[in-house]
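ARCHIVE CARD
Drawer: 12
Card no.: 0347
Subject: one protein chain, sequence and derived structure
Cross-reference: see card 0346
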Amino acid sequence: MQTLLITGISGQVGSQLADYALEKTELSVVGLIRWQDSLDNLYHLTTRINSGDRIQLAYGDLNDLTSLQRIIEEVRPEFISHLAAQSFPKTSFDSPIETLQTNVIGTANLLEAVRLVKDVADSDYDPIIHVCSSSEVYGRQASGAQLNESTPFHGSSPYSISKIGTDFLGRFYAEAYSLKTFITRMGSHSGPRRSDVFFESTVAKQIALIEAGLQEKSIKVGNLESIRTYQDARDAVRAYYLLMLASSRGEVPPGEVFNIAGQEAFQLQEIIDRLVSMSSTTGISVTVDPNRLRPIDADYQMFDNSKLKSFIDWRPEISVNAMLGDLLNHWRDQIKMGRIPLQR
């Protein structure tokens, strides 16, 4: 049985990819996790993890090359999906060094661990490596532009800059050391398990808090001028898997880069309106909170997915409304279980 190693398995996308692999493929799954990581997104899998039913956890850290090399040597995964990162742009302004360390040096450590095993321990070891970059690499762009894989980068946050480094590392290790990497630049993605620090998730969380009488009828937000595509993370992980398969068949040249994004653009006020319309609570207002504003914002993101579709048969299947409804219900369920989220 072939194995998929997922870094960042405890996150929204990593846990969704694990679900997809277990439900839709014959792969076994190994998740890279730090001992202190939250298991909230994995509790539905703990019975399978405890019994070793096609999934196990491997403890290590992106900033510890030795731990990564040990895991690669022991597991020898045929597929690696590198999703672990400090992934919140706003936080990166407060913690720029940690963001750069984790996202740039951490990615270099992972790719170096694979190279060392391949070059020193086993010359036949040649895994498919998915390096997750971000649409944030494009930064600020002119309104109306269709951003494709050749669009110049513009670092608009320490997070954006860290993902530019991640992006370049994925291509560098393909060109310099013949590792079978491919890089994805995913646009805004959401759904159940989305962290509450991200825009649409904090809006949904606040609506759920308002419904439960735990917050005044005012949703606090940051910049509402941004225009973004949205897609469900469950659609995104399906694209990841299809690209891994295509790479394993030699259909994706090493170092290739792909945009993955939703096909509709939304001004953020429209996302608020859609979420509020799903609530029976009336009189909900919106307040711009200066503490939620970034010094620079990537305020236009509309992507050209044509390259991706020329390599794999993929398009988003889950509507934005369904995605938002699932997200709102996720926060309602958390509150019903007594897991009251922070007002942030």
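Annotation on reverse: DSSP finds eleven helices and 14 strands in the chain. Residues 96-121 form the longest helix (26 residues).
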